[in-house]
Amino acid sequence: MKKKIAILGSTGSIGIQTLDVIRKNKELFTAEILIAGQNSNLLIKQAKTFKPKIVVINDESKYLYVKKHLKNQKTKVFAGKKEVINVVKNKSIDTVVSAVVGYSGLEPTISAIKAGKNIALANKETLVVAGELINNLIKKYKVKMYPIDSEHSAIYQCILGEEKNKYEKIILTASGGPFRGFKLSQLEKVTPHEALNHPKWKMGKKISIDSATLMNKGLEVIEAKWLFDIDPSNIEVVIHPEAIVHSMIQFVDGSIKAQLGVPDMKIPIQFALTSPYRIESNFPRLSLNKKLSLNFEKPDLNTFKNLKLAFQAIKEGGNKPCILNAANEVVVDSFLKKEIKFLEMSNVIEECLNKIEYIANLNFKDYVEIDRKTRILTKKLINK
Ligand code: NDP
Ligand code: MG
Fold first, then answer.
1. CA 14, CA 49: separation in Å to the nearest integer?
2. Which residues have CB under 8 Å from 197's CB, separation 6+?
3. Coil, strand, or helix at residue 35?
4. How far apart are the CA of 220 and the centre of ligand 2, in A?
5. Of 1, 62, 90, 347, which has the fewest beta carbons less than 10 angstroms from its beta carbon?
6. Which pLDDT score is estimated for 201?
7. Which ligand is nearest to the CA of 16?
8. How far apart are CA 372 and CA 235, in angstroms?
9. 300 and 284 Cβ atoms separated by less than 8 Å
10. 3-class DSSP assignment, residue 204
């Protein structure tokens, strides 16, 4: 039986690579539903190649255009946020690859879980915003969540087969991004163009900026807490510029297991779709014949304040990670539009965390409200 897959965000960096994995394993997977934000041309092209049952474009103004170009195909076309949330419940789907960017992934991911779908999760923001709620839903609806994020896939791979053993520490590796080793004075003037130029990974814009500010690692600490049920004080972040060791886990006897490979997201994407089994691939291999050095260093939390803020937010819990995420999404967007400088991003996030009232226990509506409030405050602080 082929696994039937819906891709939330098929036109993005992870979505495109997921389709690559599907294309190479046609006997195992079918792309049944493709969901995009606004890139109608790429969605049309994908629909012509993969012939999915349904495509959805979130941007309703593109509906007629997509429909017109797919009129000779059986593929049904829908548009708008409601359809995005609805379509992931479709009976024909086994697994939803959650690969939209940011908070917009939360509601469709919840909808898929409630419909009993397994989730292959790239959209880390879903767990950052509402990790507790998501974990409760996963238990209630008895679904599985497989990580796509390379660090979390690494940890997941390291603990497979170790179910009876306890671990004491997760060691999350970070490449350090384009500004590794920079001092505050050097960061003052960096441009979006420079920040988007990641040395190891080719990714969407938002996560590329997050990598440059180390917020990405902060979000990943929170993601790890919810995926692996570990106290954040037992998560250590190390800078590993070669991006070959994708993360490590230290067991109670002091033994450390690591997962290594070339930086290629197709490996964790494929594993999230086949887990716990592995299938063959022709992805590039890590060559150990060449001289290979692996370096590890401590992150500079005073220069890259976002990582410190993320640790604080998850330690305090409640609505703090949701505030952190919403403020971050707004400042990243503003930085890309050159409305705010690189270093100002952390200051605005910190101010939001301090100004918005703490709430310990939240339901879905509370998260929506906190996200909304934070975005308003962040914009106000940026325009101050
Ligand atoms: P991209 O910006 O490349 O892609 C985002 C995708 O989401 C696009 O297909 C976009 O559509 C779609 N989208 C955005 N908003 C909506 C919406 N409201 N409704 C429906 N679709 C929407 O991002 P990435 O692929 O880089 O990242 C996706 C997620 O995966 C992020 O959470 C990121 O942190 C995570 N991740 C990414 C990695 C990577 O290597 N790229 C690695 C690890 C994690 P369109 O383009 O058509 O507007
Ligand atoms: Mg990652």
1. 17
2. 178
3. strand
4. 7
5. 1
6. 84
7. 1
8. 30
9. no
10. coil
Q: Report the candidate in 145, 118, 122 with the shortest Cα–Cα distance to residue 4.
A: 118
Ligand 1 atom closest to the CA of 216, numbered from 1:
34
Structure tokens at 12: 């993005």
Task: Give the pair of three-digit tokens for residue 3.
Answer: 């696994």
Adjacent-strand bridge partners of 185: none
Distance CA 317, CA 319 (A): 6
Pocket test for ligand 1, best of 101, 128, 209 (most atoms within 8 A of CB): 101
Q: What is the strand order of the sheet 167-174 is part of?
A: 235-239, 167-174, 245-251, 256-260
CA–CA distance, 128 with 327 (Å, rounded to integer):
13
Mean residue pLDDT across the chain = 97
Nearest partner of 56 among 114, 72, 39, judged by Cα: 39
CATH of 3-147, one of 3.40.50.720, 3.90.79.10, 3.20.20.70, 3.40.50.1000: 3.40.50.720
The SS3 call for residue 75 is: coil
Identify the H or E element spanning 30: strand 29-36
What does the pLDDT look like over 149-162, one tens digit per residue? 999 999 999 999 99
Report which residue type is found at 378. T
Task: Tokens for 293, please give them.
Answer: 């050095």
Domain ranges of the chain: 3-147
Listed in order, strand segments (DSSP E) in 42-99 are 54-57, 76-79, 95-98
Is 52 near ligand 1, meaning CB less than 6 Å away?
no
At residue 202 the predicted structure's pLDDT band, cuts being 50, 70 and 90, is confident
Contact 15 CB / ligand 1 (< 6 Å) = yes
Say which residues have a Cβ less than 8 Å from residue 39's Cβ, sequence separation at least 6.
11
